[in-house]
Amino acid sequence: MDPLVPTKEPKEPITVTPNEIIYHRRVRVMEHAKKTNVSEACRTFGVSRTTFYRWQHLVEAGGLAALMPKARRAPAMPNATPTWVLEELLAEAVVRPTLGAARYAEILAERGFEISRSCVQNLLNRHGLGRRRPTRRRARAADRSHDRAGHPRRARGPVRVLSLRGASR
Q1: DSSP string of 95-111?
Q2: Which residues contact 121 (CB under 8 A, 6 or more apart)?
Q3: CA distance 18 to 26
Q4: Residue 152 DSSP one-character state
Q5: I need a labelling partner for 58 at 20 to 30 A (CA). Which of 20, 73, 86, 99 fits?
Q6: Once rounded to an integer, what is the mean pLDDT over residues 4-19?
Q7: 135 confidence band (pLDDT: 50, 70, 90)
Q8: Residue 137 to residue 151: CA distance in whole angstroms
Q9: Tell me: the pLDDT tens digits for 36-73?
Q10: Torsions phi, psi of 129, nearest 5?
Q11: Alpha-carbon distance 106 to 69, whole Å?
Q12: Residues facing 152 on adjacent strands
């Protein structure tokens, strides 16, 4: 590689996270408010004055770094299916893909895991292992050879006009 000719590719990929975009926008709002006034800055950036003053309070307390959005943890769902039950279900669904949700629930009950059929079906759908084939109605809609009521569509030919002029009664 020639050191005199600059490459068009950056040496390190530049990635900007959504949090950084939010941070830079908030900083721009604060800077614009210093140049003009609060109302003008809020109007320009589409931010309420209440939000602006909340950000300003954060800046006064912790500097501009306080405008960076906080990292939030995923909420803990108390009724969520335990991971070990989910792993058992998914393993069973991969090994025996032809069984239905009721049968999977029975198999898990034999192993000591109480889980409803509807919960099994929801978990399978969430992980892409739900229905194996589309329903007849969906298949017909995809085929387009049937109308919405499920009746076969007639082949459309040329339109013929029947003239009744001059016909005797």
Answers
A1: HSTT--HHHHHHHHHHT
A2: 101, 130
A3: 12
A4: B
A5: 73
A6: 71
A7: very low
A8: 11
A9: 999 999 999 999 999 999 999 999 999 999 999 988 88
A10: -120, 20
A11: 46
A12: 146
Q: What are phi and psi of 43, to 5 degrees?
A: -65, -40
Q: Do residues 93 and 81 touch, judged by C-beta distance below 8 A?
A: no
| Mean local confidence (pLDDT), 27-36 | 94
Residue 118 token pair:
């509807």
* Furthest CA-CA distance within the chain: 99
Q: Average pLDDT of 144-162?
A: 63
Whether residue 7 has pLDDT greater than 70: no
Length of the chain: 169
Tokens in use for 11?
A: 């040496």
Q: Give residues with Cβ within 8 angstroms of 100, minimum separation 6.
A: none
Q: Does position 110 have pLDDT exceeding 80, yes or no?
A: yes
As a whole number of Å, the end-to-end CA separation of the chain is 96
Of 84, 83, 103, the C-alpha closest to 93 is 103
**Residue of 13, 18, 14, 47 lying closest to 30 (CA atoms):** 47
Instruction: Give the tokens for residue 159.
Output: 């339109």
Report residue 148 as tokens.
């919405």
What does the alpha-carbon distance between residue 77 and residue 151 come to, in Å, rounded to a whole number? 46
